[in-house]
Design a protein that fits this description.
This protein is mainly alpha-helical. Helix content is 46%, strand content 8%. It has one domain (8-51, 100-203): Four Helix Bundle (Hemerythrin (Met), subunit A), CATH 1.20.120. Helix 1 (8-26) packs antiparallel against helix 4 (132-151), helix 1 (8-26) runs parallel beside helix 6 (176-203) and helix 3 (97-116) packs parallel to helix 4 (132-151). The longest helix is centred in the last third of the chain and has 28 residues, at 176-203. The protein is globular, with a radius of gyration of 17 Å. 34% of the residues are buried.
Length: 206
């Protein structure tokens, strides 16, 4: 299918942000932003779960229960992600790489399903991953699923309000092209957060 003209720049931005975040987490090099390659080592489990300040939200073994100010562990499987119903705790808890990556991967997977899949997946269906390698793979799978969903959308779909029925956003009230923009924004800002946490983790040894 030919990519629609209005979708093309957003798809290019998504691909760039996705590749940059994946490379930032796995190495051996990443785009420094000025066209040169910067060496970076792969993220290990200790870094993935690192809590830089007290009271972090993270992903945890379900048998251990939720962390500070969380009331339940979202997702399915042996691990869950710290969560609480609305209204969320204020100020918001600081979140680990594990939390941020799980949130991002879940969003991409569920949005893909609610755009071009069965439109049935919920947060309770999404497996939460407790190790870095598995979490990176889950992110890659979610990003690939969302990209396939984008390629399935025609010009009419881009203008359709409620084309994506994702239940945790403004999808039912906005045209799909605006939702695509919003997902890019999520990937860009959470990717930047993960990159900063990687820098802080490395710098703690100096």
């Amino acid at each position: 299918m030919t990519t629609q003209s209005r979708l093309s720049p957003l798809l290019e931005q998504f691909d760039f942000a996705r590749e940059r975040l994946a490379d930032r987490m796995t190495g051996p090099v990443m785009n420094s932003g000025d066209g040169t390659d910067t060496k970076v080592g792969p993220m290990d489990d200790e870094e993935y779960l690192w809590e830089p300040v007290p009271g972090c939200w993270s992903v945890r073994r379900r048998v251990d229960g939720p962390g500070p100010r969380a009331t339940f562990l979202a997702g399915t499987g042996d691990w869950g992600r710290d969560a609480a119903p609305y209204p969320h705790p204020w100020p918001p808890p600081f979140t680990t790489i594990a939390w941020r990556l799980s949130h991002l991967s879940e969003m991409l997977t569920l949005r893909a399903d609610h755009t071009a899949g069965g439109r049935a997946l919920t947060r309770d269906d999404y497996p939460v991953i407790g190790d870095a390698t598995g979490a990176v793979a889950a992110f890659d799978a979610g990003a690939a699923a969302w990209r396939r969903a984008l390629l399935s959308a025609d010009e009419e779909a881009l203008d359709t309000v409620g084309y994506c029925t994702y239940p945790h956003g403004s999808d039912l009230d906005e045209p799909f092209i605006d939702i695509v923009w919003w997902v890019n924004q999520e990937l860009l800002h959470h990717g930047a957060e993960v990159a900063l946490l990687r820098d802080l983790y490395r710098a703690r040894r100096y």
